[in-house]
Amino acid sequence: MTNKPRVGEPVDLMELPLAGSGETRIIGGAKDRWTMLFVYRGRHCPRCKRFLNKLNTALPAWTAQMDVVVVSADTEEKALADASEFGWTFDLCYGLSEQQMRQLGLYVSAPLSEAETTENFAEPGAFGIQPDGTLMLVDISNGPAARPDLDELLDGMIFNITNNRPVRGTA
After folding, report:
1. Each residue's pLDDT tens digit, 107-166
2. Dihedral over Cα of 161, 73, 28, 104: its sign
3. What is the C-alpha to C-alpha distance for residues 60 and 40, in angstroms, rounded to an integer?
4. 28, 13 contact by CB (below 8 A)
5. 80, 20 contact by CB (below 8 A)
6. At the topology level of CATH, where does 14-161 sit?
7. How confident is the model over 28-57, as a mean pLDDT?
8. Taking a C-beta distance cutoff of 8 angstroms, is the pair 66, 59 a contact?
9. What confidence tens digit (pLDDT) does each residue in 69-121 have?
10. What pTM, to 2 d.p., does this model score?
11. What backbone torsions phi and psi does residue 84 show, to the nearest 5 degrees?
C-alpha cells in the first residue's frame, strides 16, 4: 500500500469500464447522490463471490440510498463470466489498474500461482463517496478474510446520509 486515502478530500477521478456495456462509470467528482465503491480481488477469489452474492441480494436496499459500483483488476471476460454465473445485477466494472489501486490506498498482491491469476490484483476495499466527490468512509483489507458486514455498513451509511454526519477520522 503506497497511499493512505484521505477522508474529507476529493476522490481522484477514475474511469472504470462497465462490463458488457461499452460504458464507463466515473468515480469521484460531483454527482447527485452518494456512491459506494466495492473493490474485490477477482474471479479467483471464492470469498469475494460470497461477499458479492450477499451484496447482490441486498442490492435494492443499497440502491435506494446510493449508487453501487463494484470493480476488480480482472479482464472484462472474467467479470462477465462471474456476472453470468452468479446473476449479479450491480454495476460490475473491470480493469482496475495498479495505479488506480494505489490511488485508493489499496493493498496490492501478486498472484501465488498462475492458477490463481496472472497479474497483480487489489485486496478488498469499500469506499463511501459523498455527492460532492469527497471520501466519507474507507474500509480496506490486506487479505480476503476481512470484509465489512453489509447490513451494518448500510445501516451506518443511511445514518450518515440522513443525519448529514461529518467525515470522521480526519486527525
Report:
1. 998 888 777 777 889 999 999 999 999 999 999 999 888 999 999 999 999 999 999 988
2. positive
3. 20
4. yes
5. yes
6. Glutaredoxin (3.40.30)
7. 95
8. no
9. 999 999 999 999 999 999 999 999 999 999 999 999 999 988 887 777 778 89
10. 0.94
11. -70, -45
Backbone dihedral angles phi then psi of residue 102, each to the nearest 5 degrees: -70, -35
Contact 105, 37 (CB under 8 A): no
Residue spans per domain, the chain: 14-161
Question: Which residues, including other chains, have CB under 8 Å from residue 137's CB and lie 6 or more apart?
Answer: 7, 126, 127, 128, 156, 157, 160
Give the Cβ contact number of residue 96 at 10 Å.
Answer: 23
In three-state form (DSSP H/G/I as H, E/B as E, the rest C), the secondary structure along the chain is CCCCCCCCCECCCEEEEECCCCCEEEECCCCCCCEEEEECCCCCCHHHHHHHHHHHHHHHHHHCCCEEEEECCCCHHHHHHHHHHHCCCCEEECCCCHHHHHHCCCCEECCCCCCCCCCCEECCEEEEECCCCEEEEEEECCCCCCCCCHHHHHHHHHHHHHCCCCCCCCC
**CA-CA distance, 63 to 44, in Å (whole number)?**
27
